[in-house]
Design brief:
binds arginine, 5-stranded antiparallel β-sheet, Rossmann fold, 14 helices, Argininosuccinate synthetase, chain A, domain 2, 19% strand, single chain
Length: 431
């Protein structure tokens, strides 16, 4: 952790700013001082995105922060947020590995921690008023400390990018020279998100410039790459037979999967704020790991567990997406999911080829796959005769119902005769 301080100003309230080093939060330092008369403590949280430590801390101070620090939270991010997501096979709307969403609670937690340490009453972040991230920060922060006040300058002070650049020039704010990209991006260890520009027309195929982590699948190598991921109780612990810590494992797998064009996602997604938005994601490692984890569960969990867990997985994804990490339901949901992972240990071999990723091999000391029971060849241990008895009992309710609900045409001869007789008796009684 690197912390630097400038000369202390006269007693003013403090605000902890989630500082990304980009245009918005650079301008925010000045705006928070100017508009709110606050001392700004800029905190750059490293969740696996560029840029470098020295650059960002020094720049925050030059731009007027009283204190700036760079905190590497990658280990915490992987172990306490990404791994629980992997255990939950976390794909929002069955497709988005929550790469942006899952980083927000670890950031919210660190910001609150720093606000407490610094005695700050305010936390500021650069999210806009249209997205999910504002919800995740705000709800995450107040759930930890309801006394903290949140300021989101880009929500209060809605100006265009050009106006922000003019503001920066007028106030001597140093902004990092950046190519004027038509896209809005977010990037961390678990993946990259991209929206705006040509993507706003949902009929447009994502142009090549959208992709930053993956090779175009048509240009990927002509021979497949194989990776073996070792899991212990649902958590990835090794890559190609080598024990690795989570950060290194994800980084390495990102590289291999990215080279093979794996992990591109193009989706029209439902935001919490009621908007459908078209976004692309690149999550090479996440795509491979979640798919491998699911394959291992297929071998080690019983069917009813897999089916019921699916409901909890969807709930988990929704809680993460909707910014309810610190709410009352997330921990119990995780506790359930954790309890299913006791035997999710083993190795999965994935084949990566021109954008596809397929499980082609699996083994586990707790495998429920029994070749003796499964085989159609020699060594069959399945009791075929028992199947008849089982099917008799299994089919019994439906058989019974079929008898009871017989269609009139069939049932009928007897029934028809009986009712004919009854009518005749009635008639004769009348006479
Ligand atoms: N829609 C995604 C989410 O809410 C990602 C948003 C990322 N932001 C961006 N500027 N592309 O999790």
């Amino acid at each position: 952790m690197a912390t630097k301080t400038t000369k202390k100003s006269a007693k003013r309230e403090k605000v902890v700013l989630a500082y990304s080093g980009g245009l918005d939060t650079s301008v925010d330092i000045h705006w928070l001082k100017d508009k709110y008369n606050l001392d700004v403590i800029a905190v750059a949280l490293n969740v696996g995105q560029p840029p470098s430590e020295d650059d960002i801390v020094a720049r925050a101070l030059r731009n007027g922060a009283v204190k700036a620090e760079f905190v590497d939270v990658r280990k915490d991010f992987v172990e306490n947020y990404i791994w629980p997501e992997v255990k939950a096979n976390g794909l929002y709307q069955d497709i988005y590995p929550l790469s942006t969403a899952i980083a927000r609670p670890v950031m919210a937690k660190k910001l609150v921690e720093i606000a407490h340490r610094e005695g700050a009453k305010y936390i500021a972040h650069g999210s806009t008023g249209k997205g999910n991230d504002q919800v995740r920060f705000d709800a995450g922060i107040v759930a930890q400390d309801p006394e903290l006040k949140i300021i989101a300058p880009q929500r209060e002070w809605v100006v265009s990018r050009d106006e922000e650049i003019d503001y920066a020039a007028a106030h001597g704010i140093e902004i990092k020279a950046k190519k004027n990209s038509p896209y809005s991006r977010d990037e961390n260890l678990w993946g990259a998100s991209c929206e705006c520009g040509l993507l706003e027309d949902a009929w447009n195929e994502p142009p090549a410039g959208v992709w930053i982590l993956t090779v175009d699948p048509t240009k990927a190598p002509d021979t497949p790459a194989y990776v073996e991921i070792g899991f212990e109780k649902g958590v990835p612990v090794s890559l190609n037979g080598k024990k690795m810590d989570g950060v290194a494992l994800i980084e390495k797998l990102d590289e291999i999967a990215g080279e093979n064009g794996v992990g591109r996602i193009d989706h029209v997604e439902d935001r919490l704020v009621g908007i459908k938005s078209r976004e692309t994601y690149e999550c090479p490692a996440a795509t491979v790991i979640i798919s491998a984890h699911r394959s291992l569960e297929a071998m080690t969990l019983q069917r009813d567990v897999i089916e019921f867990k699916r409901i909890m997985e969807q709930k988990f994804c929704q809680l993460v997406y909707d910014g309810q990490w610190f709410g009352g339901l997330r921990e119990p949901v995780n506790a359930f999911i954790d309890s299913t992972q006791q035997f999710v240990t083993g190795t999965i071999r994935m084949k990566l080829y021109k954008g596809s990723c397929t499980c082609v091999g699996r083994k586990s000391p707790h495998s429920l796959y029994d070749t003796g029971l499964a085989t159609y060849s020699k060594g069959d241990t399945f009791d075929h005769k028992a199947a008849m008895g089982f099917i008799y009992v299994w089919g019994l309710p439906d058989q019974t119902a079929a008898r009871a609900h017989v269609v009139p045409a069939k049932c009928t001869k007897k029934t028809a005769k009986t009712s004919a007789k009854k009518t005749a008796t009635k008639k004769s009684k009348k006479q």
